[in-house]
Amino acid sequence: MLLNFALKKSGVAVGLLNNYTTRVALTRNIHSNIKNLSEQDVKHIQEKGEFIIEVEGHKPAFLRYHKKESVEIDLYTTVVPPSMEGNGVAKILAKAALKFARETGLPVRPTCWYIDGYLARHPDPTIKVIPPEK
Q1: Could you tell me the pTM of the whole model?
Q2: Torsion 74-97-92-59 (CA) sign
Q3: Are 58 and 84 in contact (CB under 8 A)?
Q4: pLDDT tens, 68-94?
Q5: Do 27 and 62 sit in the same domain of this protein?
Q6: Which domain holds residue 95?
């Protein structure tokens, strides 16, 4: 009762409460956006050799590659910011990159540990995999 009275009397406290409520609602919305991501949300920037997912309120997640002449695609790094981890974002990036490899017909060299593990768990007979150099 006393707290309720203080909140009504103090415009600052009410403003803080409203601000907190808005932030909680926005956070829930952003997290639901992450859970609803698909390959359609991936942008492929060929000039940079990058697949990227951008979600408002988060740093971008990306997978980078080198296209070595017309011989192979080296998938060398996958980065997902901590705020997006555990939502299958790396898997979505991997699927998009492997679809690109399949469409170009080039073999893949998975020097990124995540991609190497992904291919071990999800072998794809339509993609030739070149083992990473040790």
Answers
A1: 0.74
A2: positive
A3: yes
A4: 887 999 999 999 999 999 999 999 999
A5: no
A6: 37-121
